[in-house]
Amino acid sequence: MTTLDLDALDFTKSAGLVTVIVQDATSGTVLMLAHADREALQKTLDSGELHFRSRTRGLWHKGETSGNVQRVVSLTPDCDGDAVLARVIPAGPACHTLSQSCFGDPALQPDTLAALDQTILARAESLAAGNTTKSYTHKLLSDRNLRLKKIGEESAELITAIADNDRERIAEEAADVFYHILVAVRATGIGLQDIRDVLARRAGER
Hints:
Blueprint: E1 18-24, E2 30-36, H1 38-47, E3 51-54, E4 58-61, E5 70-77, E6 83-90, H2 112-128, H3 136-141, H4 144-164, H5 167-186, H6 192-202
Helix pairs in contact: 2-5, 4-5
């Protein structure tokens, strides 16, 4: 978990509180919004799990009763220092209604790459447990040479589609390349989030 400089936050605008926007670190889904004071944020830093301050409930630990805790990956203040983006790994639904997000269906529009990566991970774990199916993903995960061959083939097809300026084929072939790359890197223990982390580190270099 990254550190957070509490002295850099502005607790004066909302009577000692800052807004905390909670986001699923894996899918990018916005889970909930709450508030925290300095004590709550310090508890969060000390425990690695989100704590909030409510005008009615006082200091509270998210998931303390339900078990649906939110393990913090990073805490990032906004430009004004009066709000914090908390990226978390949730242990369960964020909302008291047992919905994944307090914002309902609009917030749950799928991150298709993250969903694909999770499916590939499930296939890899199934294979590691000794289970085999006729799924194409299992076949790829079981055959290193096939994985490498397919990346080459799909990349060549994408290059051809781009050369032909065929927009529909470009999108289709790019999707095939993404899929085969995710399977190939998953076979080595690398997932989509690892790739995202590298891209995030490189963002300032562009």
